[in-house]
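Milestone M4 deliverable, item 7.
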Amino acid sequence: MTFKNIPFGSLESFNVILEIPKDSPVKYEYNHEKDAIIQDFVFKDGFVFKYNYGFIPETLCGDGDPQDVMILNTKPLEQGKTYQCRAVGIIELLDRGEEDNKLLAVVIDDPEAKDITDISSLLEKDFQDFKDFYAEIARQKNKTMEILGFHDKERALSELQKAHQAFTA
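Output delivered:
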């Protein structure tokens, strides 16, 4: 399977290639040189990814990687598949002092996610879950990660547009 020919899509309906299914105890990461999704880390103590996680093709962020995406749908999605998504917000995150923002999105045709239209659709508990999630990742991988803020759909779309332009430049 090759991922290099999957297009960006549009700001309203972009493609996300799924690296890590929700509830996985294994962190996978796309390797550009091998054009493959490979195992990166196995979590301990029963910790699992609470979210479906992937990247948007034809984007380039400040860390040299494609735009990371956390898909907020309730069911695990299939690794290596491409999903059409829409943005609802973005987490401004530092990973070892470097910008590593996470776009928050939902799969467009998931009826359970139709009411999630912007970050304001999320509950206060959701924001604490994000903080706890990244604190545990930092602990297990023995690194520093800091959430600087949560931003709305408009900011997410602006960041996504910049990442797509950086790829095409």
